[in-house]
Amino acid sequence: VTGANKGIGYGIVKGLAEKVYGAVIYLTARNDKLGMESLNKLVKELGNKCHSDIRFHQLDITDRNSCENFASFLKKEHSGLDALINNAGFAFKHSAKESPEEQARVTIGINYEGTKQVSSILFPLIRDGGRLIFFFFF
After folding, report:
1. Is pLDDT above 90 for 138?
2. What is the dihedral of CA 129, 64, 66, 61, to 10 degrees?
């Protein structure tokens, strides 16, 4: 699950861990510290209601090297994946000081280009019958 250290992504990981037995679920985030804090919080929160193995891996969808490192790791550790849930995204607050042009550039760079990049790099690892899922809520 991309962008899973907070918000909807965190909720997706939590829901999957409660309902799916025996899965390995990766909570990903750009920031190692925030990702690990979220993982620890989630494991503690779920307690014995956790039926999957939740793990953290750093992933910045806007950084090609980060995406390729995650793909190499998944291929080595699991030989592929059953589902990629694209949740990472960004939205400016109404009070943002950036110009509309800058807001558009950053938003498109993350929400479109980043999602396209991570999807194209990880898609070859999706097993037969696997899924590529997109969540965009702003």
Report:
1. no
2. -70
